[in-house]
Amino acid sequence: MEQMLIIDDDKETCETMESLISRLGYQCDMAYDLKTGLPLLKQKNYAILFLDVCLPDGNGLEILPDIMAGPEPPEVVILTGRGDPDGAELAIKGGVWDYLLKPSSVKEIRLTLDRALKYHKEKKTRAEQSKLEFNQVIGKSQRIQASLQLTAKAARSDAYVLITGETGTGKELFASTIHQNSQRASGQFVVVDCASLTESLVESTLFGYRKGAFTGAQSDRLGLIKLADGGTLFLDEVGEMPLSIQKVFLRVLQEQHFRPVGDNQQLSSNFRLIAATNRDLDTMVEQGTFRRDLLFRIKTIRIHLPALRNRTEDIEDLLHARMDYLGEKFGLSPKKLGQDFLDTLLRYSWPGNVRELFNILERAMIDAGEEDTLYAVHLSRDLRIKVAKSQIQQMTGSGELSEADDRTGNDGVLKIGQRIFEDIFDSPLPSLKEFKGTAEKVYLSELIRQCDGNVPEILKKSGLSRSHFYLLLKKNSLTL
After folding, report:
1. What is the β-pairing status of strands 54-55 and 58-59?
2. Is 425 exposed, middle or buried (0-12, 13-18, 19+ CB in 10 A)?
3. Quick check: 225 and 258 in contact, CB under 8 A?
4. Domain 142-304 falls in which CATH fold?
5. For the chain, what are the domain ranges?
């Protein structure tokens, strides 16, 4: 329960506010001078301090620096019977939450109290989160910060966690972060890639086996579940786990006991489960390919990781952090990021998410060699073409070409524009005027080819007048 302290020499004010705070369900202490109130501040961890300015043994504003210098200072609400603009300025500069003139209405006091409490709780949560080691998670976007808040809560508990998100969003990184900040950090973080296990190997891999249990079992072997005893078991791509194993694994979660293959005795393992998937487990439950009871069991805390295309504001920070890593691990020299390099990456759709971003950056740094700056030309031609096509589709409102378009050659601006972009990708960009001229000449040449020089057909397809068409031919030195 949150605690409040009132330091005010006006006993009537103290008693009125103490009565209001108590009715709201909070504990409240009172002091009529600094001599009594300051020791209370040191003894208890108050959330809110209501502090009078003029007290018998000192000025409330003068002790603000000492109060705010504490390890977990309360939110301070200044109370005064005098309208003192300079005092209000000093109070606000000193870090107080609010400045109330006496007498204040019950409604005003309650509103201030509710807001101050909400802010104090949020600040406390942020402080707790900052104490956790989240150094490997890069990003300031609202979406990733929301995921981090849930991660902080998960790290402070021992509940099972389900992490969802597309491939490459960092599910294993978040799982590892939870483990490293939990009470189980001294135990092992054991990874099980469910997608790579065949049904015949899942049981022996998870539960282990005894010597002679099957052909090739030449000695006893501990399973991954036992290795995670006292630590964390991370089931990556849990949606790939066969139905036959899901039932057995559910029993392990409920009882924390299991039997190795070929053994008559059960073993125990006190592990914390974190599961991850890029699939929609709720849909799989409806389709009968994932057990409903297992899903309920593993998703006590659910953390969804956003796709990179939905948090592009984090791309630059991710690039800088990865460059530092590549420089330290492989000796690659750090680079400046050219604006065209960033612009191209910001326009890309990122189907592979952060993992793809890191791969692309590493390739670009290698391609740049000793150059100081990364430009768009250091990106793969395939990526730049995809970005160009996407831009052209947005500008023209065109989608993918239909089969009919492909057969008739009626490709329009989209296909011609794509060819132009492909031709200039590996060269410095020309001026806009020069580029427009090139595009116009390419269009006219393709138009004449597709229409076999038939002028009426050319005019119909292009929408040009006869005089305008011949003028363009002369301008671009073209003939029919």
Report:
1. antiparallel
2. middle
3. yes
4. Rossmann fold (3.40.50)
5. 3-127, 142-304, 309-379, 430-480
Domain 3-127 sits in CATH 3.40.190.10: no
For residue 454, report the phi and psi dihedrals to the nearest 5 degrees: -75, 105
Terminal Cα-to-Cα distance of the chain (whole angstroms): 88
Q: Tell me the average pLDDT of the chain.
A: 84
Q: How far does CA 59 lie from the centroid of its chain? A: 47
The encoded tokens of residue 336 equal 């400046």
The CATH number of the structural domain formed by 430-480 is 1.10.10
Instruction: Give yes or no for a contact between 199 and 150, defined as CB atoms under 8 angstroms apart.
Output: no
Query: What DSSP line would sit under 142-168, residue for residue?
Result: HHHHHHHHHHHHHHTS---EEEE--TT
271's tokens = 């592990």
* Helices and strands, number each (H, E), in the chain: 21, 18
Q: Which helix (H) or strand (E) holds 217?
A: none
Contacts of 77 (CB under 8 A, 6+ apart): 48, 49, 50, 51, 96, 97, 98, 99, 100, 112, 113, 116
pTM over 0.90: no
Torsional class of 426: left (φ above 0), alpha (ψ -120 to 50), beta (otherwise): alpha
**Two tokens at 153?**
């809560």
Tell me the per-residue pLDDT of 90-126, one tens digit each, with 9 for 90 and over: 666 666 777 777 777 778 888 888 888 888 887 776 6
Q: For residue 370, how many other CB atoms are within 10 A of its CB?
A: 5
Give the range among 4-18, 413-427, 460-474 with minimum mean pLDDT: 413-427
CA gap 278, 476 in Å, rounded: 53
User: 222 burial class (0-12, 13-18, 19+ CB within 10 angstroms)?
Assistant: middle
**Do 273 and 160 touch, CB atoms closer than 8 A?**
yes
Q: 3-state DSSP call for residue 327?
A: helix
- Residue 190: beta bridge partners? 233
Q: Which tokens hold the place of 91?
A: 């109070």
What is the rounded CA–CA span in Å between residue 132 and residue 183?
12
Beta strands in 278-315, from DSSP E residues, in sequence order:
301-304
pLDDT in tens, 271-313: 999 999 999 999 999 999 999 999 999 999 999 999 999 999 9
Q: CA angle, 94 as apex, 88 and 100 as ends, to 5°?
A: 35
Given this chain, do its domains 3-127 and 142-304 carry the same CATH topology? Answer: yes
Tokens found for residue 431: 């001026």
Q: For residue 142, what pLDDT is reported?
A: 81
Alpha-carbon distance of 15 to 299, in angstroms, equals 48
CA distance 378 to 375: 6
Neighbours of 411 (CB within 10 A): 17
- Assign a CATH topology to domain 309-379: Helicase, Ruva Protein; domain 3 (1.10.8)
